[in-house]
Amino acid sequence: MKKEEILARSKKENIHGDEWYKAIEKTANQTAFLAIESVYAVLIVILVIQKLITGKAFADYQVFLLAFLIGYIGRFATKYSYTKEKEWLFGLVCGIIGSIACLINIVGKGMGWF
Predict the structure, then answer these.
(1) Which of 36, 46, 54, 80 has the fewest CB atoms within 10 Å, counting from its CB?
(2) CA max distance for the chain
(3) Cα–Cα distances in Å, from 89 out to 36, 59, 71, 76, 103?
């Protein structure tokens, strides 16, 4: 096999991108997701503690909780769609219910309903 044929075959096999680059991109996305979710989790804890101690918090923890839950809904939905495992479906349903409840609470407090 000639060099040109080998290069052409290699190029054809890697038409959707280099596997090494895809692995780096996947790792970067996972790391970014975990970093963002960690910041949300820390802010939620700080805000809840601040509210318990002082009666007031510098921001509404429920907004961060909603963002946290939405992030995990995406994660659970993806894992369930690939594996069809019931634990991911359970997490997905709980996340959706929690997000809806959180959103209703945020809107309700903002509108003076609660």
Answers:
(1) 54
(2) 76
(3) 23, 31, 15, 7, 21
Residue keyed to tokens 């945020």: 106
d(CA 74, CA 27): 17
Nearest-angstrom CA–CA distance, 19 and 113: 53
8 vs 38 pLDDT, higher one: 38
pLDDT band, very low/low/confident/very high, at 16 (cuts 50, 70, 90): low
Q: How many residues does the chain have?
A: 114
Question: What per-residue string of b and e applies to 67-97 under the rule 16 or more CB within 10 Å gives b?
Answer: bbbbbbbebbbebbeeeeeeebbebbeebee
pLDDT of residue 15: 66
Q: The dihedral of CA 13, 15, 18, 19: what is its sign? A: negative
